[in-house]
Amino acid sequence: MWLLPALLALAASRPLARADSHWCYEIQARVFNNCLVPDQWGEDCQKDRQSPINIVTSKAKADQNLGPFSFSGYDKKKKWTVQNSGHSVMVLLGGEATIAGGGLASRYRAKQLHLHWSEVLDAGSEHSLDGDRFAMEMHIVHEKEEGTSRNEKEAQYSEDEIAVLAFLVEAGSKNEGFQPLVEALSDVPRPEMNTTMKKSISLSDLLPEEDKLGRYFRYLGSLTTPGCEEEVVWTVFEETIQLQKEQILAFSEKLYYDNRQTLKMTDNIRPLQRRGQRQVFKSQAPGQLLPLPLPALLAPTLTCLVAGFLR
């Protein structure tokens, strides 16, 4: 008779053990065996409109509605709060800066930015372009302004409640705009630690020049961390950010996943998800060549020249 209560207790304990398990990346599971790796993530993470994806640039469909963005407050300099979230480093933006345009249906407020990275300089981005990955990827996370959804039910099921601007990072020359963030890493080595940047910078200081942000890719997807809610309109920019190799490696060297500082924070990357039937779109950037063969483009010019000589 003692066996039945014991079995019931064991069965009851299993779901609780799983619920208590924290989600993690693959590299964490090698050290901490009580966490859930990406293919075990729950909530919406097993649905079919997930992120990140590989973007096949030749299959992206040009959309004339994807014009330039309007950035408001991106040039405001501030000593931002920096936090070790336990899975990344996060800069808290407070919703002061906003974006509009860019084919978005409304205005969005910038809430936070964070990064993904690796010690391997071609393995740190979550998205890939034609199978190529980059050293890092920066996500600026925006939430739709209140009142732009027609009702609460619509907001609950909206595909675009969150707008994420994704910037791919590669090794290159030293980036002075990023240096205050790099220097702040030493002050937040452990999870839940906060600090303030010692020097004021703007969001624009972190980005490529605005006139280089006309070329980008757009698709509907999800957050790349649990609960992986499928309410994100993604913008992945073609123009990369350059950081010095030492600046990139500082993220892996200064930050830790755990309070004991036993595991350095690196490879905080969700594996690629299936694109499925989703269409990826690309912007019609100013100055972009029309999809016509060279002879067709030159024909009007040659006609004018010939007419001039015959006069």
CATH topology: Carbonic Anhydrase II
C-alpha-based Rg, rounded: 23 Å
CATH architecture type:
Roll
**CATH H-level homologous superfamily name:** Alpha carbonic anhydrase
Characterize the main sheet.
13 strands, mixed
Class computed from helices, strands and strand pairing: alpha/beta
Number of domains: 1
Residues in β-strands, percent: 15-25%
Whole-number mean pLDDT? 87
Overall geometric form: globular
Description of the molecule:
It contains seven helices and 17 strands. The strands form three sheets. Strands 4, 5, 6, 7, 8, 9, 11, 12, 13, 14, 15, 16 and 17 form a 13-stranded mixed β-sheet that branches. Strands 1-2 form a two-stranded parallel sheet. The chain has a two-stranded parallel sheet with strand order 3-10. Mean pLDDT is 87; it is low at 1-20 and 287-311. The protein is of the alpha/beta class. The relative contact order is 0.20. It has one domain (16-289): Alpha carbonic anhydrase (Carbonic Anhydrase II), CATH 3.10.200. It has helices at 3-20, 26-29, 152-156, 179-184, 203-206, 245-254, 294-310, and strands at residues 22-23, 35-36, 54-55, 61-63, 69-72, 81-84, 89-92, 98-101, 108-117, 128-129, 136-144, 162-171, 194-196, 216-221, 232-237, 241-243, 281-283. Belongs to the alpha-carbonic anhydrase family. Its main location: membrane. Pfam families: Carb_anhydrase (PF00194). Residues 21-284 form the Alpha-carbonic anhydrase domain. Its cofactor is Zn(2+).
What's the layout of helices and strands?
Layout (H helix, E strand, L loop, with lengths): L2 H18 L1 E2 L2 H4 L5 E2 L17 E2 L5 E3 L5 E4 L8 E4 L4 E4 L5 E4 L6 E10 L10 E2 L6 E9 L7 H5 L5 E10 L7 H6 L9 E3 L6 H4 L9 E6 L10 E6 L3 E3 L1 H10 L26 E3 L10 H17 L1
Parallel strand pairs: 1-2, 3-10, 4-17, 12-15, 12-16
Antiparallel strand pairs: 5-8, 6-7, 6-13, 7-9, 8-9, 9-11, 11-12, 14-15, 14-17
